[in-house]
């Protein structure tokens, strides 16, 4: 009887050990699957962040190129405006010179007319 009880006890322990090993394996498999799923989920976020950063870098390069082009165009416009302003000043100077010459010619004409009138008299 004692030997049968011992045998029965050993079989029960063996069954429990097998059940515990099975549960341990299932727990490890579940933990491994959870870890893989978590890493995959995080990798999706990291990949998306990487793609966003890559796009941002490209947009920053494009913006820098566009800003440089805009700066060059602005300098060209400023140069054109400066040349235009200078030309307008020159035209103003020519107009002023022409008015001065015209005034001098009228003065000379008036003087000649007065001299002619005096000479006729």
UniProtKB/TrEMBL annotation:
One Pfam family cited in the UniProt record for this chain: GCN5L1
InterPro entries: BLOC1S1
Location of region: Disordered: 1-26
One of the GO BP terms on file: endosomal transport
Domain of life the protein comes from: Eukaryota
GO cellular component: BLOC-1 complex
Basic and acidic residues: bias regions: 8-26
Similarity comment: Belongs to the BLOC1S1 family.
Protein name: Biogenesis of lysosome-related organelles complex 1 subunit 1
């Amino acid at each position: 009887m004692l030997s049968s009880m011992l045998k029965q006890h050993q079989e029960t322990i063996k069954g429990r050990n097998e059940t515990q090993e099975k549960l341990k394996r299932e727990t490890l498999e579940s933990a491994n699957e959870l870890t893989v799923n978590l890493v995959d989920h995080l990798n999706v976020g990291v990949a998306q962040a990487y793609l966003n950063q890559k796009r941002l870098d490209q947009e920053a390069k494009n913006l820098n190129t566009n800003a440089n082009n805009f700066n060059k165009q602005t300098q060209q416009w400023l140069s054109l405006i400066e040349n235009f302003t200078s030309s307008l000043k020159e035209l103003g100077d020519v107009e002023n010179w022409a008015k001065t010459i015209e005034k001098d010619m009228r003065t000379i004409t008036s003087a000649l007319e007065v001299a002619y009138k005096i000479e006729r008299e």
